[in-house]
Specification:
Belongs to the Nudix hydrolase family. By secondary structure, this protein is an alpha/beta fold. Helix content is 44%, strand content 21%. The strands form two sheets. The chain has a five-stranded mixed sheet with strand order 4-1-6-5-9.
Amino acid sequence: MRTEAAWAALEGALARRVVAARAVAAAGGLDQPHADELRALVTVADTATRAHRADAENDLSRALVALPPVHEPELALQLADAGERVTLARRFYNDAVRDTRALRGDRFTRVFGLAGRAALPDYFEIAEHRRPEPVRRTAARVLLLDDADRVLLLSGTDPRAGASWWFTPGGGVESGEDLAQAAVREVAEETGLQLAPGDLVGPIWRRTARFAFVGVDYEQTEFYFAARSGAHPGRDELDTSGRTELEHQTLTGHRWWEHDDLAEIREQVFPVELADRLTEARLALDRGEPAEVVEVR
């Protein structure tokens, strides 16, 4: 019977999601309350009878949407794939239920007793919960070069994910700011180095990034300027007193990088092409203006 075959497929998709959610709860990337709640809801969904399965699966769906982003790429992919399979299987099952109920209601079927005595199948109604759209914002960043052509990078971490990386000073553009104003404000906050908008050359690069940071999904368009820092070899310290509380928690260090050392680094660096394109920043500074805005990764 088509309806029972569709139900079997839906059960398989729900079971796959239970396995993926249980793996996320066990991976160690969630805080204890979230992990405990997810384990409990997974158990309820996995053991629920058919009559109570929809309620249990709805509770699990809501919990999955409310979770912090899953930073383990393989687990995130498995969970997303399982969710899509549940959505498709539920639609297929409900289509089968609709057709079965319509056939049972047909006058010809009723008159000649072709429907048999089986109970009418019920729809499986669970909401298609999806994660909210990412926060979209524009950011301004600065390639700061000192008198020895070293470039300043900050090291950062996401406390929720345990990941770390190197990146250029900069951040989101606030209301009423243009790109240059945001760039010099962010540099002052993060490094203590004072620049004026007129010290910037660019933007020379543009980069679009999709990422999760401290539990928030972002889609960010970044514009990169180049500037001379006024710092010189032997004067590597920064003034970090202007950093926000979040920056104090997530910025873990800094370094003025020689090009050759930067080319050999094994840690994550953003933009990814920085070592290969650093000469472009130097040439833009020599010219005093960018040739064009280049897309980078």
